[in-house]
Amino acid sequence: xxxxxxxxxxxxxxxxxxxxxxxxxxxxxxxxxxxxxxxxxxxxxxxxxxxxxxxxxxxxxxxxxxxxxxxxxxxxxxxxxxxxxxxxxxxxxxxxxxxxxxxxxxxxxxxxxxxxxxxxxxxxxxxxxxxxxxxxxxxxxxxxxxxxxxxxxxxxxxxxxxxxxxxxxxxxxxxxxxxxxxxxxxxxxxxxxxxxxxxxxxxxxxxxxxxxxxxxxxxxxxxxxxxxxxxxxxxxxxxxxxxxxxxxxxxxxxxxxxxxxxxxxxxxxxxxxxxxxxxxxxxxxxxxxxxxxxxxxxxxxxxxxxxxxxxxxxxxxxxxxxxxxxxxxxxxxxxxxxxxxxxxxxxxxxxxxxxxxxxxxxxxxxxxxxxxxxxxxxxxxxxxxxxxxxxxxxxxxxxxxxxxxxxxxxxxxxxxxxxxxxxxxxxxxxxxxxxxxx
Length: 438
Hints:
Blueprint: E1 3-7, H1 13-22, E2 26-31, H2 34-40, E3 47-51, H3 58-66, E4 70-73, H4 80-89, E5 93-96, H5 102-105, H6 108-114, E6 117-119, H7 128-142, E7 146-158, H8 175-180, E8 186-190, E9 193-197, E10 207-211, E11 215-221, H9 227-231, E12 239-246, H10 250-259, H11 275-283, H12 290-298, H13 305-313, H14 328-339, E13 348-359, E14 364-374, H15 382-399, E15 407-409, H16 414-426, E16 432-437
Parallel strand pairs: 1-2, 1-4, 2-3, 4-5, 5-6, 6-15, 7-12
Antiparallel strand pairs: 7-13, 8-9, 10-11, 11-12, 13-14, 14-16
Helix pairs in contact: 1-15, 7-16, 10-13, 11-12, 15-16
């Protein structure tokens, strides 16, 4: 029986472990928290838990990597390169769902020399977005067409029936990652012109998007869209824009959260400080009503929905920030984790929508491709399934010798995206495509 090392036991790990266990592979689940990992493998015949800390347990990482056939890192992205280097050292294949970093890309030569594949960006976004887009782009090119415009948005949100808090958002992914993304610059191409939006202005630059049957959402640009012109092999395009989808009110609220300094990651002492005291410091309001001070700082009325959201979250409460928290961002994350959880039986929703404007010699077309997927009540979330199943399928294909690639890759070639998308469709995760002549 071939063995897989799964590093991490977070929100998206269970479908990965379950899939590989069900397909006859033995999975070592390596996690700092034994109880959390044991809960994840409940019902899995071919899985076992090993207590492991990627930061300190170098010898154990070597030992575990040596006795497995493939390593999958579902840890925070900062740990992937360390795990990938161990995989290269022991000539084992490696997978993750995160973006390819410069440090990961630099392992290309070593991975090829070792004869191993380092497969990255094989989740949902990045992952299913790449695969579903490339399937259409390759089809257009094969028919002599040109992709003149490509836009893509993805959002993990509460299902409409369970969208019942002021933020229109619940935690299906690490909130730290969600909030940190709000600090990034955005760089994209629109109508032939490059656009650069600084992180501080990101949430001013959202657009409203209507989704049939679901209503209106806010869409704001993701990090670096420009590099995908080359990655997707569409040098002819005049628009390349990848973005994030959120419910109405998110962007204006996150804009004020950012301007207040709550996304700050500088280490500082918050010992015995209350959330209200932190907000007093941020607004320079030593005395008086904190609500009034925050409204004044943000330039909004005291009855504005933004202030009501900050208050509902607990940012104005005289509650002590938990010990061990040393950044304002993590203080905010704690409140997100406390207040924005899914209740038992509630469902999340994953929405992905691509739009292509395509030109052929004799016609122009608009192509849309849309995924709307829901979590399973009291079961796996849509986020966990759509992130974990693509990399789980890829892991099985690698272990079965169906993928022969070596080096650093993402799933943008047919030998990767065709079988993964086909199996995902069989598991109920598929995009609906529509073509209309213009």
